[in-house]
From TrEMBL:
<feature type="compositionally biased region" description="Basic and acidic residues">
    <location>
        <begin position="8"/>
        <end position="18"/>
    </location>
</feature>
<dbReference type="GO" id="GO:0003677">
    <property type="term" value="F:DNA binding"/>
</dbReference>
<feature type="domain" description="HTH cro/C1-type">
    <location>
        <begin position="9"/>
        <end position="48"/>
    </location>
</feature>
<dbReference type="InterPro" id="IPR001387">
    <property type="entry name" value="Cro/C1-type_HTH"/>
</dbReference>
<feature type="region of interest" description="Disordered">
    <location>
        <begin position="1"/>
        <end position="22"/>
    </location>
</feature>
<dbReference type="InterPro" id="IPR010982">
    <property type="entry name" value="Lambda_DNA-bd_dom_sf"/>
</dbReference>
<protein>
    <submittedName>
        <fullName>HTH domain protein</fullName>
    </submittedName>
</protein>
<dbReference type="Pfam" id="PF12844">
    <property type="entry name" value="HTH_19"/>
</dbReference>
Length: 172
């Protein structure tokens, strides 16, 4: 069975009118490796994901790859109920952020975790789920905005990292 990242790699390569051989020359990987990535026989290597982000500003392959490597499941929406137009993604992000904010308002985490009642723990778990929904929607929104408006995904994250460093939140 093909992996989602393998299917996405093939789709992106074909959208650009590239053969496996041309992609292998661009990425310094063998054509056989490209074939194995596309067929799901091998996990896509970070170098190939970086190539698509740098050369084509397409973070979707990276999202599929991270999902397969890490199991985080921040997958692009591709089911039959998904509306992936940028305005729909925008509205969905607003909805998810509102739901997360409301859940956070109702959640108390001031008690020692060892002394939290089961109903309180369930409330905390539900809040965590709302926050996860918001994070997923945020990443998909950012990916779509970067792709649609040709804003560099890589530059956005680099600038974000510099901002965190300048404020003393992370070390260099």
């Amino acid at each position: 069975m093909k992996s989602k990242s393998g299917r996405k790699l093939k789709e992106l390569r074909q959208e650009r009118g590239q053969s496996q051989e041309q992609l292998s020359l661009d990425t310094f990987l063998s054509r056989e490796s490209i074939s194995k990535f596309e067929n799901g026989e091998r996990k896509i290597q970070p170098e190939l994901t970086n190539h698509y982000i740098k050369q084509h500003n397409d973070p979707m392959l990276a999202l599929h790859t991270v999902s397969e490597y890490m199991g985080w499941h921040i997958d692009p929406l591709d089911g039959p109920a998904a509306d992936t137009h940028r305005t729909s993604i925008h509205m969905k992000l607003q909805e998810e952020m509102q739901e997360a904010a409301e859940a956070l308002d109702q959640c108390s985490i001031t008690m020692n975790p060892d002394y939290v009642a089961s109903y309180e723990r369930e409330n905390i778990k539900n809040t965590a789920m709302e926050v996860a929904d918001s994070i997923h929607a945020s990443i998909l929104y950012l990916a779509e905005i970067c792709k649609s408006y040709n804003i560099s995904w890589e530059d956005v994250w680099d600038e974000h990292q510099r901002k965190l460093q300048s404020r003393g939140y992370v070390k260099s």
